[in-house]
Design a protein that fits this description.
Distance between the termini: 18 Å
Largest sheet: 8 strands, parallel, barrel
Radius of gyration: 16 Å
CATH superfamily: Aldolase class I
CATH topology: TIM Barrel
Oligomer: single chain
Helix content: 25-40%
Number of strands: 10
Strand content: 15-25%
CATH architecture: Alpha-Beta Barrel
Shape: globular
CATH class: Alpha Beta
Number of helices: 6
Structural class: alpha/beta
Strand order of the largest sheet: 1-2-3-4-5-6-7-8
Length: 200
């Protein structure tokens, strides 16, 4: 089964709904320029109430090693990094976010990671844009490594995306929102049902 990450969580009730409906991971955006930005203090309060089998993910843009170390104290267990990954041994495992390049290369930048998050390119917002990734090219990447597919996924297109790309997991933010940072419970349910193949 395709794993599900719900990103841009800012509220307890949205985290609870996502978990109850069957999400496997929750993303917390720690990039101040994002409309879905939250603080480590707020994250810690939400993560404290999560079941142990849910993976809380900190979403960073070019963080320092210290930024990632501080996230551990808030209970985060994975760092999703857009931009530069700090060198050296880090306090959390890293899921590198990359985007499809403009050339015929599979992904840009070239990385050796066994698993990557594939998102639409936006040099300012770094995700959560609602822009759809080129699924044909994403499928070529998925044939060589595990990918988490993001970028413009909604309850209406996620089944098609899974069939076209065959990702390890899907990641949604704007596609299940009432407004940035606020989830819509009906869209959440419809999205997760669609991933599971139980939607109408």
């Amino acid at each position: 089964m395709t794993a599900i990450k719900i990103c841009g969580i800012t509220r307890h009730e949205d985290a609870d709904a996502a978990v109850t409906l069957g999400a496997h991971a929750l993303g917390f955006v720690l990039y101040p320029a994002s409309p879905r930005h939250t603080t480590l203090a707020a994250v810690a309060q939400i993560v404290r109430g999560l079941p142990p089998f849910i993976t809380p993910v900190g979403v960073f843009v070019s963080p320092s090693a210290d930024d990632i170390a501080q996230a551990v104290q808030a209970g985060l267990r994975l760092a999703q990094v857009h931009g530069e990954v700090p060198p050296g041994r880090l306090a959390l495992p890293v899921l590198r976010a990359v985007h499809l390049g403009a050339s015929t290369d599979d992904i840009e930048p070239a990385v050796a990671d066994a698993t990557v998050l594939l998102d639409a390119h936006d040099p300012v917002r770094h995700g959560g844009t609602g822009q759809i990734v080129d699924w044909i090219r994403a499928r070529a990447v998925a044939a060589k490594r595990r990918i988490v597919l993001a970028g413009g996924l909604t309850p209406l297109n996620v089944r098609e995306a899974i069939a076209a790309v065959r990702p390890y997991a899907v990641d949604v933010a704007s596609g299940v929102e009432a407004e940035p940072g606020i989830k819509d419970s009906l869209k959440l349910r419809a999205f997760i049902d669609a991933v599971r193949g139980t939607g109408t």
